[in-house]
Amino acid sequence: MAKVVLGMGSSHGPMLSTPPDMWHLRAGADKKNPKHFFRGQAYDFPKLLEARRPGFAAAITPEESQKRYDQCQRALDKMAAKFAEAKPDVVVIIGNDQRELFADDNTPAFLVYTGGKIENIPESEEEKAKWPPGIAIAEIGHCPPGGAVYSGSAELGVQVVNSLMEQEFDVSQSSKLPKVNGHEHGIPHAFGFLYRRIMADNPPPSVPVFLNAGIPNNQPKIPRCLKFGRALMKAIESWTEDAKVAVFASGGLTHFVIDEELDQRVIQAMQKGDEAALGAIPESYLLGNTCEIRNWMPLSVGMNALGKKMTLVDYVACYRTEAGTGSAMGFVYWQ
Predict the structure, then answer these.
(1) Cα–Cα dist 163/152, whole Å
(2) Is residue 99 within 8 Å of residue 180, measured between CB atoms?
(3) Are the C-beta atoms of residues 96 and 212 closer than 8 Å to each other?
(4) Which residues pair with 310 in a beta bridge?
(5) Interval 78-117: pLDDT, tens
(6) Which pLDDT value is given to residue 259?
């Protein structure tokens, strides 16, 4: 029977792949953004700055930015080393799509990829020119030059679908990555970053599991995400193949408005295995890109169900403006 031997949660944000002296590109976009979500409320930049006084000027100096960037790189190196040490035969990745793969005509709440081929396709220069400032520079972090093709574990994918259906999770399935508006994109960056940075561009066969963390109106609620974690681990370990499996959650933590208090609330609940504390987080706090905390919830609960303990590799709040915008990075594993 298959056995889950490792769980890993990692942020995947562009700031991890952008030199800190270029973080100002996204900072400029933050200042023009009319809708920043923070604890259930929406703010324009001036109002956010006022609400978060005295602000975060000390955290955005060049020296401090470089220090935090370096801290993240060391954490990622430790995650990669732990993954290599575990030597899993198969990987399952819980991640979300940000309209890279699914368009308005189909937004699945849960989808399991059952294909045998996973393409990571670089964007054309024409497409990258349409991206917001500070995004194109980070593509190298989730897609190698020239792209890549990874192996999918179709057999485990089908087993996961069948088991989840038996457990009353009506998941979607796909054996091909769809085109968006006729454009072939390949696997989204939430997955590509882990293939590149933690699996060193040499992943074992994998099963991407898509959770709609933030696209209205069918995001799974927090209690559903928690239940999904237990069901997913049961599905994986019901596979009759003698295989070691690693399970990832990709995304988070709070961004693009950093809320260290909320991040610590989530991290401490996961460390203690306190599912009630995770379930008590207000849904309204998971707006904007902070929604990706949803991806971590199934993994945490699933690891609890298997009796595994969490190790915090690091938590780094990477600020880029005095109003507290940026990305809070988390790196953890369970064994």
Answers:
(1) 18
(2) yes
(3) yes
(4) 334
(5) 999 999 999 999 999 999 999 999 988 899 999 999 999 9
(6) 98
Under a CB-based contact definition with an 8 Å cutoff, are residues 247 and 7 in contact? yes
Alpha carbon 151 to chain centroid, angstroms: 20
- Contact between 120 and 199 under an 8 Å Cβ cutoff? The reply is no
Give the distance, in angstroms, between the CA of residue 144 and the centroid of all CA atoms in the same chain. Answer: 19
Specify the residue for token string 């972090």.
141
CA 181 to chain centre: 24
| Lookup result for tokens 């220090």 | 67
Q: How many angstroms separate the CA atoms of 32 and 169, rounded?
A: 40
CA distance 153 to 161: 12
Give, in degrees to the nearest 5, the angle at Cα 218 between 97 and 40.
90
Q: What share of the chain is helix, strand, coil (3-state, %, to 5)?
A: 40, 20, 35
pLDDT grade, residue 181 (50/70/90)? Answer: low
**Tokens 């270029």, residue located:** 22
For the residues of 103-137, what is the DSSP string, one character each?
-TT---SEEEE--SEEEE-PPPHHHHTTSPTTTGG
Distance of CA 127 to the CA centre of its chain: 23
Chain segment 194-246, per-residue pLDDT in tens:
999 999 999 999 999 999 999 999 999 999 999 999 999 999 999 999 999 99
